[in-house]
SigE family RNA polymerase sigma factor (Streptomyces armeniacus), 194 residues
Amino acid sequence: MPVIAPWPAARPAQPASVSTERGGADDAMTAGTTVDHLTETYRTHYRSLLGLAALLLDDTASCEDVVQEAFIRVHSARKRVRDPEKTLAYLRQTVVNLSRSTLRRRILGLKLLSKPMPDMASAEEGAYDRIERDELKKALGGLQRRQREVLVLRYFADMTESQVAEVLGLSLGSVKAYGSRGIAALRVAMEAAS
């Protein structure tokens, strides 16, 4: 794992006449990986990094994107890589991390995809549904007022029998009686219509 130094703290400017005794060693530490070194690393190791990404991902375009992004990130952070010899290790780790991120995004995308729509009903099915709905409305219209109210509230408004009783101001027994008689009358009316 490469060692990445924090951003160098700004040092006060020294007069030109003062020479640094430490020399080039300190300058090499703050300089980090040079653009030339990174360019050479790109030329030498691009294909091997692409192969690494290919082992983690399944399509060439994603592999190329990951490797390019890795080089961009290393280029942006090149002054923080203390040892230029560890640039390749840093690149490899970046390729692995970016591949993981790509896979996570794919998995999340698959989870968030909406479920496929069921097959659409054919025009014939829609016509039959409409005919049945029209017949049901007509049959409901032929019921007594209380039977119709109980059935509509119970089955179309999804109310419980006690809720229907409260809404209509009836006893629970009356709601049950109107409901059973209404269903029987509705069944007879629908069979006659068919």
